[in-house]
Amino acid sequence: MNIDKILEDNKLIIRLDGRLDTNTAPKLEEELKKDLPNITELVLDFEDLKYISSAGLRVILSTQKIMNKQGNLAIENVNDFVMEVFEATGFVNILTIKE
Amino acid sequence: MKKITIPAKIENLPQAIDFINQQLKPFEPISQAQLQLELAVEEVYVNIAKYAYEPGEGKVFISCEIDENPLQATVQFTDSGIPYNPIDNKAPDMKSREKEVGGLGIFLIKKNVDDISYQYQDGKNILTIRKKLGTNIQ
Hints:
Chain A is of the alpha/beta class. Chain A has three helices and five strands, in the order ββαβαβαβ. The longest helix of chain A is centred in the middle third of the chain and has 17 residues, at 54-70. Chain A is globular and about 35 Å long. By secondary structure, chain B is α+β, with helices and mostly antiparallel strands. Chain B has a five-stranded antiparallel β-sheet, covered by helices on one side. Residues 94-100 of chain B have low confidence and may be disordered. Chains A and B meet through helix 2 and helix 3 of A and helix 2 and helix 3 of B.
């Protein structure tokens, strides 16, 4: 999985390319740990994210909890498979997912 | 039926996924269904890799059988670790806002396969998942 970041003041856009799975989720978690302090607006762009598993969901959930305290998190350009996983697990109800 | 035996370690997850996908490739499954199977395979595999031999190490044996017309994959995972029946695991409460993420993997396995069965035999955990997959072949 490739992680691309664009930082503009307190806004951070993270583009993920590939698979957010058991092996790659820790990499995202580590990046977020470094970058999230001072961020009030976080965007996760999933346009090139092909696949997600429960390990990826856990990182998203913990990120959502952090952003609930310090700003907001939006997830954009979710593909059909990832959307299906968000729907099946009820994550659609706790995340802000934009078209 | 094809089979592989690999050390049950998280870093070997791509080998497990690649093994299944290689068996499926000639049958050109619909990508959505293939991703659903990959998800179930990952969740089963990772469960074994993380917990079956804790705190030691061991191996996992994976077999894959493909049926055509209609296209269907049967994947069996065998380990000699701690007896554990994942089917008994209760689904997490999906309505709860503070999500209980522990059971999420098991929930996703059940959600993405057509059949799941577990048996403990001769000191081995044997978990079998079966999934129907559409095909792009006309």
